[in-house]
Amino acid sequence: MTEEIMTNELKYSGRIAQIGIYFRKFLRMFVYQSDWKVLPIGAIIAALITLVVGKNMFLTMEGTTYGTFALSCACIWNGVFNSIQVVCRERDIIKREHRSGLHISSYVIAHMLYQLMLCILQTLVTLLICAIVGVHFPATGTITPSGLVDLGLTFLIITFAADIMGLMVSSIVRNTTTAMTIVPFLLIFQLIFSGNFFSLGKADFMKNFTISHWGMDGMCIIGQYNSLPMTTLWKTMVRVQDVTIMDGQPIREIVQYMKENDMVDAFKIWSGAQNGNPAYESTPANVWLCWGALLAMIVVFAAVSVIALQLIDRDKR
Question: What span, in angstroms and rounded, lies between the C-alpha atoms of 174 and 176?
Fold first, then answer.
């Protein structure tokens, strides 16, 4: 009976009305099929990451590099697992309803709205976990007056881009087993080709096609990376201060002199100034470039999802 009602609603409904019909259907699935479980899972992932790398994030260059990369990957993980099975698990239903009047574009848009709702909730949970753990948020924003708002928007866009990427894969593959098999390759691609930790050589252009690259860049820009102190050089000097050079220990003398004259913090700031990254300059143009790249990916992923599902009637398996 329920399927007959759905079929009649689709048969006599336009594209906009169908968006509402499917959005309400997905809301029911959120409650009755336990789709809400993605929220506590996301909270656990955020807690584990921030406990390990969140202490020095937005306080030092090194802490910001590791922290933003880890959080970017966490957002991608959350987004992909939100949607990687949602289409392929009901492929037969979609095929039947498409023949009964379902507009594929309406179906995909309804999914996007529903997934956006999930991503907003996950972003709020992630920000809450970061605050509880004690992450030092940027005091001022680059786009808005608040660094917290800018950071939250970046989390949201990263998660949503990964979510729609998962939706695209789910629209292309035939079953959930294939979808879950592809997930590790998606995540490895985001990790390796972000261009932030590994030298890509001639493949450096590939970083422009990764969510992780633009996500990490956006967070570093908002976190005012180039104005942060760098601690690596100071720690190295302290570690090797006992090295003897020409019957003396000049490094120890330098370390002691800076400690006695309260020059350590100034030295770390100077070190940071020598290692700035032009791509991380805290300007609105740089933030918009990162956000724009991610938004463009969302549009492409959504378009591919629609095109793939338009061919669902040809699927004979």
Answer: 7
Q: How confident is the model at residue 315 (pLDDT cuts 50, 70, 90)?
A: low
- Answer yes or no: do 250 and 300 share one domain: no
The Cα–Cα gap between 145 and 193 comes to 32
Lowest model confidence (mean pLDDT) among 11-15, 151-155, 236-240, 282-286: 11-15
Counted domains in the chain: 2
Q: What are phi and psi of 144, to 5 degrees?
A: -105, 170
Cα–Cα separations (whole angstroms), residue 193 to 157, 189, 211, 264:
19, 6, 10, 36
243 and 189 in one domain?
Answer: no
Nearest by Cα to 38 from 69, 74, 70: 74
**pLDDT tens digits along 3-24:** 544 555 555 467 788 888 888 8
Do 122 and 213 sit in the same domain of this protein?
Answer: yes
Name residue, tokens 């949970």: 125
Q: Are residues 218 and 154 in the same domain?
A: yes
**Two structure tokens written together for 29:** 């699935």
Residue 265 structural domain: 231-274
* pLDDT of residue 288 exceeding 60: yes
Question: 132: how many CB neighbours lie within 10 A of its CB?
Answer: 12
Same structural domain for residues 185 and 251?
A: no
